[in-house]
Amino acid sequence: MNATPNATSSPRRRRDLSWLIDNERTLGYMLVAPVVILLVVLVAYPFSVAIGYALSDRTLADPGVFVGLDNFVELFDNQIYLQTLRNTFIFTAGSVALRLCFGVGLALLLNETFRFRRFIRSAVLLPWIVPTVLGTMAWLWMFNPNFSVLNWMLVHSGLMDQGFNWLTNPDLALFSVTLVNAWRGTPFMAITVLAGLQAIPHDLYDASAIDGAGKVQRFRYVTLPLVMPVLLTALVLSIIWTFSDFGIVYGLTKGGPMNSTHVLATLSYQQGLASGNIGEGAAISLTMLPVLFVLIIWQLRRIRRSTVI
Amino acid sequence: MSPPPKRQFAPLQPGEIRSTNPRAERWLFFYIPMGFALFFLVGPFYWMLITALKPDSELYDGSKSPLYVAHPTLEHFRYLFEKTEFVTWTTNTMMVATLSTIIALVMGVPAGYALARLKFRGSEFIGTAIFVTYLVPSSLLFIPMVEVMAQLHLDDSIWALVVVYPTFLVPFVTWLMSGYFRTIPTELEDCARIDGMTRLGAMLFIAIPLARPGILSAGIFAFTLSWNEFIYALTLVTASSERTIPVGVIVQLTRADFYFWGPLMAGALLGSVPVAIVYSFFVDQYASGLTAGAVKG
C-alpha cells in the first residue's frame, strides 16, 4: 500500500477507542441519544403531565385531585366548547381549501418565466416568513372598525355603501380570521408545490406534447400526478398547523366576539392559563389528539409506502 | 407607454395549438392573477409600512386617502425605541434564536446523519418517533410546559425559551438533514474509510462539509422558527424585560381597547425585517432545502 505515514499509523493509535467511534451501532446510538433524551424530557414528559392535569380538577391556586374523565364529560356538555370545536373545523377546512387554491395557482404562476422573478418569489414568501402575530397586526389594523383600509377601498371604489364589520360581526369574524390564516399559509403551499413542479423532468412535457396532449391534458396527466406526493405532504402539514393554530386568532380576536372565533388552542389558553382552570384547559387541548393522530398515522403510512416523505 | 413585451413564451411545441391572441392570454392568465396575488400577499406589508411612517394627524383623519403618506415621520419609531423596551426585546429574540439554532444544529445534524447512514437496531423506530414529535403542535404542550419549566427553575426567563425551542427545532433539523444526507453519494465516505478514517471522522470531515447547503437551510429555518415563535414566548415568560419581539410588541402596544397603531406597525415592521432579509438572500436554499427534505434524491 502506498499510503502516507499518517494514514497508516492513525488507525493503530486509535484502535483502543475505535469501537466507540468506528462501530456503526455504537456510533449510531451515541449520535441519536441526545435527541432522544431531549424529546423524552421535554416532549414525552410534559405530554404525560398534560394527561395528568386533564384527569384532575387542578387550578392555578389548588393542585386538585384525580377526577377521572370528568373534564372531558363536562366539555361535551359545554356550549362554548362545542361551538369552539365547530369553529376549529370550519377554520381548518376553510383555510386549507383557500391555501390549496391560492397556493397551487401561485405555484403555477411562479413557474412561468417573467421579469423580476426572483424578487417576486421572495416578496410573496413574506406572509409565511415574518412572525405570525406581527403580520396579523397589519390585518387587525386593516380590519379596524373606524379606519379599515379595506372598507375605505370598498366604499371609494363604489362597490359598497358601507364597509364590513370584519371582526366585530360574529357572523363574519370567523371568515376574517380564516382568511388571514390562509394568507399566512399560502406561500408555504406555493413554494412547496413550485419545488415539486421544478423537479418534473422537461422531457415528460416534450413527450406528451409530441403525443398530442394539450395544456389541460398535460396538467392533468403529467403535472398533477408528479406533484401529488409533495402536495399531499404540504396539505397534511397545513391541516395539522391550522388545526392547532393559536397566534392568528389570539392576535385578531382572542376568541371573540361572543366566542364566535375561538379555536381549541385559544380556548385552552383562556381556560387553562388566563382563567386558571388548568385541568379543564389541558383537557381542551388534548381533545385535538384524535384528529392529529389520524393525520400523523396517515402521513407515516405514506412515507412507508413510497420513497417520498 | 409600456415597452413591447419581450418574447416570454415557451417555444411552440409540436402538436400545440397556440391561442390567436397570445398577448391577451398572457394578461388574462398571468398578469391579472399575479396582480391579485401580490395585492393579497404583499399588500398588508405596504399598509404596515405606510402606517409606521404616518404622523398621527394623518393616521386618524378619515378625510384623507389612507393609501399614501403625505408627510412621512419617524415619530413612531422614536416612540418604539424611547418609550418601550423594544431594544431589549430585540436582544432577547436574537439571543434565543441564535442559541436555540446552535443547539438544534449540534444535536440534529449528527442525528440526521446517523438515521440516514448508520445501521443500528431501532433506528427506524427512533426516526419515526422524531418525525412524530415534529408534528406534535406546541399548543398541545404549553400548559404542562409552564410547570415543567418551574420544576427546572427556568420559569420567567429567556433561558426557558432557549431550552424549549429545541423541542421543535431538533426534530425538524434531524428530519431535514437525514433527507439531505441521503442525497449525498456515499462513495467519498467509503474512500475515506478505506484510507483509515473512522466512521466518526468520515462524518465530521467528509459528510458534514458536503452537507453545508443543507445545514445552512436547516439553520435558516431553525433561526426564523425561533424568531417567530409565539405561544411559548407568551406563556413561559411574563416579565417585560424577558420578552421577545412578537410578544413584547403585542402585549405592550395593545392595551384593552387602546392600540398604539403607529408604534405597533413600526414594531411589526422592524420585527419582520431581519427574517425577511435572511430569506431574500437564501430563497433558493429555502426551496432546495424543502425539496431535499420532501423528495429523496
What features would you describe in this structure?
- The complex is a heterodimer of chains A (309) and B (297).
- Chain A is mainly alpha-helical and 309 residues long.
- Chain A has helices spanning 5-22, 24-54, 70-75, 79-110, 117-129, 132-142, 149-156, 170-198, 202-210, 215-243, 247-252, 264-274, 278-286, 289-305.
- Chain A has two domains: 5-54, no CATH class; 70-305, MetI-like (MetI-like fold), CATH 1.10.3720.10.
- Chain A is built from 14 helices and no strands.
- Chain A is flat.
- With 297 residues, chain B is mainly α.
- Chain B folds into two domains: 1-73, no CATH class; 79-294, MetI-like fold.
- Chain B has helices at 22-53, 56-59, 75-83, 86-117, 123-135, 142-151, 158-164, 166-183, 187-194, 199-210, 212-228, 231-236, 245-253, 261-294, and strands spanning 254-255, 258-259.
- A two-stranded antiparallel sheet of chain B has the order 1-2.
- Chain B is globular, with a radius of gyration of 25 Å.
- At the A-B interface, helix 1, helix 2, helix 4, helix 5 and helix 6 of A face helix 1, helix 4, helix 5, helix 6 and helix 8 of B.
- The CATH topology of the largest domain in chain B comes to MetI-like fold
Shape of chain B: globular
Uncertain stretches of 5 or more adjacent residues of chain A:
1-12
CATH architecture of the largest domain in chain B: Orthogonal Bundle
Distance between the termini of chain A: 43 Å
Number of structurally distinct domains of chain A: 2
Q: Find the structural class of chain A using helix and strand composition.
A: mainly alpha
State the major sheet of chain A.
Answer: none
